[in-house]
Fold each of these.
Amino acid sequence: MEMGKNWPVMDSLILCPAPLVKRELGVSFNILPLFAKSFPNIRELQLFFGTEVPEFDGDLYPTYRFKKLGILGVGLSRIPNGQTRNIGFLLASICQHPPLIKFGA
């Protein structure tokens, strides 16, 4: 991600976590490792997630991890039915410390 290269000290990134329309859209949880690679020291990240959740691949120590993420905002994202376990495994693997999950508008 170019943004991470240009702003290496960014500590907060909020990208429309509560859209007013098209609530069925949203980014995939697959994007989190890319954010961890580009912004390893970010403290707060807020995104609107879709319902696509990857199967956890079992890698508890991936190459890229969030080192300081304290807040992961999910805004008005829907909870993917039956996928909370995979989301938990993904977050546990890419976050060195468990972040606070912030939800709502």
Amino acid sequence: MESLKGHSFDRHYNSDHIMSTITPLSVNEVITQGCKQVDIGDESLDISRVYMWLNNMPTISLTGASPRKGHHIVVHIKRHSDSLASLSDDAPKVLKVHVIQASKVEDLSSLRLTAEDNSDSSRYYSWDGPQLLGDAVSARATDERAARQQHFVLTRPKGWRGAEDEIEINAWDGPSWEGGLDFIAFVEFEGGQVLRTDVQTADIVS
């Protein structure tokens, strides 16, 4: 795998060179292959907005157990094609969402992370897509309640919030970082393509 060193972080990645697979990439492959725009099929994708926040509002537990508090995330991905009519209802499938604490994009090239580093208190965290969690979970891939309970990435249907040319993805109860930390998010698709954000700052709702 090519090193990020000496290469532009804004490079354009074409999926024609990647064999289709639903096997997740390693964390370092995600970092290396992350781009600000990717081509999948007949459309190009880029991230238009990302928001991650920690909800510190008091909550009431119906079970008596203390609810786990972690960051939630929403990512809006713009779909570019010849026309809205040419956008398929079957949008490119999200395999994982990754977030890494970082204050500069250039800092990513020095990181050496593995799947074992994925924890709610680590600088790295990821949510799986439902297709990685078995048939029972995949059958509920569009169910928000299931996504919250099973901690998988929920991809909203085409036209959600009236945006026909957008993919909106949500994930809940992620890393338990302190609020206000800088991070970079990655969206990994089936086939190995990866979108990357610029540096973002997590919010606190209290």
